[in-house]
């Protein structure tokens, strides 16, 4: 076998481009360490990109893991500060389904307990800039959300923050790069190199070029999430974990303006919530011990979610489901406990005792507290590297584009684009939206709106291809939600591919292969939910991409 | 409210795409009084300009010209290899397939070029060479099997919609097999905002303006070099055939000019839709807009767009999912008469398997390139195109089905969609009018 193509040394090599990996890479780079991040696919391809897209305080964990709630609430406040453009308020309604207030002792207890519960959560709200809960009468409830089933007896509200989890990962990686880190996506760590009980290097393979390489490392951080147990097994160290599969459904539009907390058939709490341009139903939670690469949504999971949401919002049965998507939670290992009752806390394993000194594994945690988790992990890295460094500043330095949130109206007026498109651009890019639109000023063709669902401009696609570490076309699913909306790429996929190909110098064969790969990813998410108009859309997509495109 | 005006007729055709139009015109030709009920333009109005009937299944995708067999011979091979496909069901009548194709292309000759008996190979925006037994007149000059020398593949300098390099790659792949050598160029057109941000229909309108086609022809002429045998342009060369945009560009440039095929939105699809409407009107088919409500079948009144229609025979040509003939709301059903959906492909071609209520995940395979039973689902019919009920019995001796509503094939992607529409439409229309094939 030929030797590695190149060999470089880093203070720390981070494995995994989810929010923990990208977060710790940013933190370490900002503290002055030399950092390499390896991700076998694209950033946010795992649980971080398949999360509910919330930086919520975790009210659900308040009874069992109150420290998780406190940590998440405080960190949510920091995330709002460093990425203000990427977060948005989601007011939740927690309706009361009891027959009549005070009619039975059990009902009274339920009422009282819920109020205390939510009231306790209110104590955490100031940490994340949330509003205190409000109790709603039935009249007020139905005025806010007329689609709720009849017979409900009021509700309490909960204020939470939504976020684009994929872009959050990206911004952390981009910030890491700005601070000198090397970030290699579509590059898989194939094995660890050990010398005298220490992990000293990581061998890797670039999936796009086929190139092999090796990086010397002071410390290796394993943040491969759901892939951790498998990676550990093949590299001789154990990673205790209870991985859990979670499935979400997306609807083609916002089904309402409030998140609704519902109860699933098995009594679990779940939700239907507006998120960006769509609504999301989530989530399932089932043990999963296979390879996360092999996941699919099943018919059972789809029915479970639809039934749960329809128990409070019956019209969901008529809604158009555009896709089912999934991820693997990396919950902490416990034996003899239901999935839902597993702790959402996190843990850092030092594998010195396993004969792998210098190797840390990160397990568990929440998107909402990613920054604090990364900080804790970076502290451990610094301790192992044993080098004087700068203090952590990830809570105060804005992520790229997070320094200012431009007014979409100004942007629209200045550049002659639709305000709704400008709003989406600002949402995704913050202050960098001005830079994106500079491309459109240089070339009027760049004002072409490629996707009406997401308001994606040709200029945005070109900018993303140039500046956001795009290596495959499907990366744009996570950069700007290309081909994820109701049209599934019918309008946008080919023109966007053409622009990316031009920016990255792809020839026609590569372009066609990338297009086929993008479309295949969409098909996998749709095949369990093909019904009603979505099925008609699928017929059109198939006619164009398979029939006409030969893809 | 005044009672709805009652119309009595011989044949009610439900659906106005290629299958319904062919059925209506075939029945009309046989002397029947025909009413067509149509709720909206269906998938024919969204098609890209090709009339795909059959491609030899033995022909490898990277060796299209190896398929020298004619269209009918290719259909026979499909009939022999694809259980459940309508061609197999109608295998004893495939000798009439070409009559049907000639009938339909003749009816719509305002936009369709005469077929040659073999497939033309036409470029698509995706860099693919697509076989078509017939195509729009504006496209015929781009047949890769005919062009000798260099084929100029054009995009527009001012518009990001089409990448001539990508389009041309479809020809690169077949060049070693005897196709023309492609050369990709950008024509200096649409360099102002109105064009740059226009949708295909906007560009087609711009080219219909007085002098615009001649201007485009001059721009094209400027980039010609010796050896250029023909030029293909994006499929926006006018909506109205009477504007003769493609001919005017060709005359000005002094070279044969063609459109390549269209994806969506489709100017050629709209052109086809209009040609169908015009032909139906000229042939005396009464077209009613609206869904068929409360219709129980022949001899019974059905409400259509405020009228009441009583017909001796019915032809269901209501399409698949885009057309709305087959729908899935939790389970699959036929939309007009509520007939069972029990024809498909692969394992579900077996008529004894009831699959209409199965979850969509179990009717699809993870590999999108594999045959997908859900996308091939439709009515089961007998060899006379009578829909069958759940027990396999003929629903009614004077109810027929045609086109994508008939299951067992994937009209979206298997390259036989228009052929099945034309063949079954022609047969069903004649049978409904009381004439055998």
Helix content of chain A: 25-40%
Number of DSSP E strands of chain B: 19
The domain count of chain A comes to 3
What would you call the quaternary organization? heterodimer
- Overall morphology of chain B: globular
What is the CATH topology of the largest domain in chain B? FAD/NAD(P)-binding domain
| Domains of chain B, number | 2
Strand content of chain A: 15-25%
Low-confidence stretches of chain A: 1-6
Alpha-beta content class of chain B: alpha/beta
CATH C-level class of the largest domain in chain A? Alpha Beta
Cα-atom radius of gyration of chain B:
22 Å
Fourth CATH level, the homologous superfamily of the largest domain in chain B:
FAD/NAD(P)-binding domain
Which parts of chain B are unreliable, with pLDDT below 50 for 5 consecutive residues or more? Answer: none
Strand count, sense and barrel status of the largest sheet of chain B are:
7 strands, mixed
In CATH, the architecture of the largest domain in chain B is 3-Layer(bba) Sandwich
CATH class of the largest domain in chain B: Alpha Beta
Structure characterization notes:
The complex is a heterodimer of chains A (about 550) and B (about 425). By secondary structure, chain A is α+β, with helices and mostly antiparallel strands. Chain A folds into 3 domains: about 140 residues, FAD/NAD(P)-binding domain (3-Layer(bba) Sandwich); about 210 residues, D-Amino Acid Oxidase, Chain A, domain 2 (2-Layer Sandwich), CATH 3.30.9; about 140 residues. Helix content of chain A is about 35%, strand content about 20%. In chain A, the strands form 3 sheets. In chain A, strands 3, 4, 5, 10, 11, 12, 13, 14 and 15 form a 9-stranded mixed sheet that branches. In chain A, helix 11 crosses helix 12 and helix 12 runs parallel beside helix 14. Chain B is an alpha/beta fold and about 425 residues long. Chain B has 2 domains: about 210 residues, 3-Layer(bba) Sandwich (FAD/NAD(P)-binding domain), CATH 3.50.50; about 160 residues, Rossmann fold (3-Layer(aba) Sandwich). Chain B is about 25% helix and about 20% strand. Chain B has 11 helices and 19 strands. In chain B, strands 1, 2, 11, 12, 13, 14 and 19 form a 7-stranded mixed sheet that branches. In chain B, strand 1, helix 1 and strand 2 form a beta-alpha-beta unit. The longest helix of chain B has 17 residues. The two termini of chain B are about 45 Å apart. Classes of the chains: A alpha+beta (about 550), B alpha/beta (about 425). Chains A and B meet through helix 7, helix 14, helix 15 and helix 16 of A and helix 5 of B.
């Amino acid at each position: 076998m030929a030797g590695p193509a190149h060999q470089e040394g880093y203070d720390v090599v981070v494995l995994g481009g989810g929010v923990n990996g990208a977060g710790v890479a940013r933190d370490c780079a900002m503290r002055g360490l030399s950092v390499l991040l390896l991700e076998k696919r694209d950033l946010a391809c795992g649980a971080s990109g398949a999360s509910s897209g919330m930086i919520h305080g975790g009210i659900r964990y308040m009874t069992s893991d109150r420290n998780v709630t406190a940590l998440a609430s405080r960190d949510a406040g920091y995330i709002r500060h460093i990425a203000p453009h990427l977060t948005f308020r989601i007011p939740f309604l927690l309706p009361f389904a009891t027959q009549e207030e005070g009619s039975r002792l059990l009902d009274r207890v339920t009422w009282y307990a819920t109020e205390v519960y939510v009231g306790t959560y209110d104590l955490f709200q100031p940490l994340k800039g949330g509003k205190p809960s409000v109790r709603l009468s039935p009249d007020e409830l139905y005025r806010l959300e007329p689609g709720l089933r009849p017979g409900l007896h009021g509700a309490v509200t909960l204020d939470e923050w939504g976020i684009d989890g994929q872009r959050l990962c990206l911004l952390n990686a981009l910030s890491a790069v700005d601070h000198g880190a090397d970030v290699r996506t579509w590059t898989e760590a194939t094995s660890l190199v050990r010398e005298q009980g220490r992990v000293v290097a990581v061998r890797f393979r670039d999936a796009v070029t086929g190139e092999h390489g090796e990086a010397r490392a002071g410390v290796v951080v394993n943040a491969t999430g759901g892939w951790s147990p498998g990676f550990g097994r093949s590299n001789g160290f154990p990673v205790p974990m209870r991985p859990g599969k979670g499935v979400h459904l997306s609807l083609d539009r916002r089904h309402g303006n409030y998140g609704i907390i519902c109860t699933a058939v098995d009594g679990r709490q779940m939700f239907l919530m507006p998120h960006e341009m769509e609504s999301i139903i989530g989530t399932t939670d089932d043990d999963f011990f296979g390879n996360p690469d092999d996941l699919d949504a099943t018919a059972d999971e789809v029915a479970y979610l639809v039934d749960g949401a329809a128990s409070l919002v019956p019209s969901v049965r008529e809604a158009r489901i555009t896709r089912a998507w999934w991820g693997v939670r990396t919950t902490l290992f416990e034996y003899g406990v239901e999935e839902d009752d597993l702790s959402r806390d996190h843990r850092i394993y030092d594998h010195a005792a396993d004969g792998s000194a210098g190797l840390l594994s990160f397990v568990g945690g929440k998107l909402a507290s990613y920054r604090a988790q990364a900080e804790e992990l970076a502290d451990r890295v610094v301790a192992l590297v044993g080098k004087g460094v700068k203090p952590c500043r990830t809570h105060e330095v804005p992520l790229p584009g997070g320094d200012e949130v431009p007014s979409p109206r100004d942007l629209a007026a200045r550049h002659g684009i639709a305000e709704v498109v400008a709003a989406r651009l600002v949402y995704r890019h913050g202050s960098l939206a001005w830079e994106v639109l500079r491309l459109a000023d240089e070339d009027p063709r760049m004002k072409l709106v490629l996707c009406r669902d997401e308001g994606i401009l040709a200029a945005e696609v070109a900018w993303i291809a140039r500046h956001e570490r795009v290596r495959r076309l499907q990366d744009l699913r996570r950069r700007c939600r290309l081909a994820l909306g109701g049209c599934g790429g019918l309008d946008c996929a080919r023109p966007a591919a053409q622009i990316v190909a031009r920016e990255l110098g792809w020839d026609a064969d590569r372009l066609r292969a990338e297009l086929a790969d993008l479309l295949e990813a969409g098909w996998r998410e749709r095949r369990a939910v093909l019904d009603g108009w979505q099925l008609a859309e699928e017929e059109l997509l198939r006619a164009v991409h398979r029939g006409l495109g030969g893809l | 409210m005044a009672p709805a005006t009652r119309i009595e007729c011989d044949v009610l055709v439900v659906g106005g795409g290629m299958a319904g139009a062919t059925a209506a015109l075939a029945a009309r030709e046989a002397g029947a009084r025909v009413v067509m009920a149509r709720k909206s333009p269906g998938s024919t109005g969204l098609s890209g300009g090709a009339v795909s009937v059959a491609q030899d299944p033995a022909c490898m995708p990277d060796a299209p010209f190896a398929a020298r067999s004619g269209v009918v011979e290719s259909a026979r091979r499909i009939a022999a290899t694809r259980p459940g496909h309508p061609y197999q069901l109608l295998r004893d009548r495939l000798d009439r397939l070409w009559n049907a194709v000639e009938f339909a292309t003749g009816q719509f000759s305002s936009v369709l070029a005469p077929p040659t008996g073999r497939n033309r190979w036409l470029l698509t925006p995706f860099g693919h060479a697509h076989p078509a037994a017939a195509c729009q007149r504006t496209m015929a000059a781009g047949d890769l099997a005919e062009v000798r020398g260099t084929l100029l593949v054009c995009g527009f300098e001012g518009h990001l919609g089409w990448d001539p390099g990508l389009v041309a790659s479809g020809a690169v792949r077949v060049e070693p097999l005897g196709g023309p050598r492609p050369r990709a160029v950008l024509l200096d057109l649409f360099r102002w905002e109105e064009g740059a941000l226009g949708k295909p229909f906007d560009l087609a309108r711009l080219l219909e303006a007085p002098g615009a086609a001649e201007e485009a022809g001059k721009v094209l002429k400027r980039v010609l070099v010796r050896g250029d045998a023909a030029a293909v342009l994006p499929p926006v060369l006018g909506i109205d055939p009477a504007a003769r945009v493609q001919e005017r560009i060709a005359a000005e440039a002094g070279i044969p000019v063609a459109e390549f095929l269209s994806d969506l939105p489709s100017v050629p699809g709209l052109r086809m839709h209009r040609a169908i409407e015009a032909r139906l009107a000229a042939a005396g088919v009464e077209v009613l807009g609206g869904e068929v409500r409360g219709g129980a079948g022949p001899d019974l009144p059905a409400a259509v767009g405020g009228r009441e229609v009583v017909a001796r025979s019915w032809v269901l040509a209501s399409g698949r999912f885009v057309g709305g003939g087959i729908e899935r709301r939790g389970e699959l059903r036929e939309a007009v008469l509520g007939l069972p959906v029990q024809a498909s492909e692969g394992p579900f071609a077996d008529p004894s398997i009831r699959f209409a209520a199965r979850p969509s995940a179990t009717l699809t395979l993870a590999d999108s390139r594999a045959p997908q039973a859900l996308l091939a689902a439709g009515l089961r019919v007998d060899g006379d195109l009578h829909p069958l009920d759940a027990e396999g019995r003929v629903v009614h001796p004077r109810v027929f089905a045609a086109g994508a509503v008939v299951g067992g094939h994937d009209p979206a992607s298997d390259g036989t969609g228009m052929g099945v529409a034309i063949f079954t439409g022609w047969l069903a229309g004649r049978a409904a009018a009381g004439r055998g094939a």
